[in-house]
């Protein structure tokens, strides 16, 4: 266990070091998230009377789209110059690689979300319910769990940038539904007892998908 | 017409036999059963089953809709089980079955969605609504499309098979979760199998059962044909490789 944590830490450090040098992944995600929010904001402004009504949907579409952009890049660098083979040859468990990549993706997406949230709340003129942060975190864990697995698949596929959203969205739709329902409930100030089952649902989804992805990962990179 | 067809099949078997030591019979018992069940199902659905009191003849589409959707879901289960078996045993035939079932599943779920929409427009007044079953069918359609696209975009055979299997496992987990999620959200679809007596006359029920059996047999027939094509493709590929090796 201790060894696994050490291995995971090493791979995460490597990914962070690479990202810190270029910052291209984070910046691309951030700019894209802003664009999505702004486009939605003025597109809906033309017609929708009550912007708060569409806010939960905008929030989750933004995070899932921008998050997917980041996920797609998580194995891009590994493809170049045989890095992936190098990584697989390291004396590191395959499962450690999955966990490390998943945590790395989670960090990057969470950072993007943290930077985007203030702008979202300013544009839609809403107050941040503290519990929303937990909901967003749970959603992001699910995105990262599934997305890391698919991003690894994309390292071997043609037309990878087109394929990732096609694979990703049908699987995470339940998470999007739960996220939207919970956010809407929190924005509207619904009593917690009426919406807490959605939180349980998100936790269950995250646990199930994490376990399945973790167990399947070794089949993806096996030679 | 029949003569030409039999000539075609003999020609195919003639070239097919040397490729693989399993000459497939052109017409098997399964095909006859399928044809019989479909014919019986059509007669029952259009002539025997009574006219529904409130919906009228539109209701007859229900016999096709339920059967096609059921087959669409069944195909995902087969894709999933065959994918699991492939990952465990590494035998190519499981991968072929997984793939073939997904292709046919896409066809049936498409039919289920289209027939459902045709029924919904006059009865509900809308082509589409985000009800649990409708959403789940839409997601299932996307899942099949994604699965097939994934397979098409990976060159290496063993990897293609493994990736396909992993995706089918994730899909098989996510599709029921999706159903639960929307069920909590809203439900509009008639729950056919919940009401006592299903709200149908005995004749209607028998028609539905025959229709479901006919569609399931049709699925099995298509699966066996698709598998035959897949085996032939593989044998052909091997022959080509052999020939390249010789020259």
Helix and strand run of chain A: HHHHHHHHH
N/C terminus separation of chain B: 42 Å
Helicity of chain B, as a percent range: over 70%
Q: What would you report as the Rg of chain B, rounded to the nearest angstrom?
A: 21 Å
SSE pattern of chain B = HHHHHHH
- Sheet bearing the most strands of chain B, described? none
In terms of per-residue confidence, which ranges of chain B show pLDDT below 50 for 5 or more consecutive residues? 1-21
* Quaternary: heterodimer
User: Greatest interface and its residue counts?
Assistant: A-B, 33 and 31 residues
Tally of helical segments of chain B: 7
The N- to C-terminal Cα distance of chain A equals 25 Å
**Arithmetic mean pLDDT of chain A:** 88
Structural classification of chain A: mainly alpha
* SS elements, strand count of chain A: 0
Major sheet of chain A, described briefly?
Answer: none
Backbone shape of chain B: globular
Globally, the shape of chain A reads globular
- Kindly name the structural category of chain B: mainly alpha
Q: Which properties best describe this structure?
A:
heterodimer; A: 223 residues; mainly alpha; 86% helix; B: 247 residues; 7 helices; 0% strand; globular; disordered N terminus
